[in-house]
Amino acid sequence: MMRGNGGDAANTAYKVRITKGFVDASFGEGFLVEVWDFRVQRLVYGERYKELEQARRRQKEIKNDLESMSLDRFRQAYLSRHPRS
Length: 85
Prior knowledge:
Blueprint: E1 14-24, E2 28-37, E3 42-49, H1 52-68, H2 71-79
Antiparallel strand pairs: 1-2, 2-3
């Protein structure tokens, strides 16, 4: 697995996006806010939302964190916990 320098900005490794579609049988249709490690093309974090506006707000929050946090701090904040539902 590729690992960047922990002091690098998180946006050097990760991107955030919204996808729409069928999430699962219990949730149904919705929006996923996904964080991708674009170096290895792998989903590393995701949250589910029913409403597009909520998903857009969360995407913006995560994007701001990607721009302001180091790789180590972002991994600690997002990748060391279970996804929110």
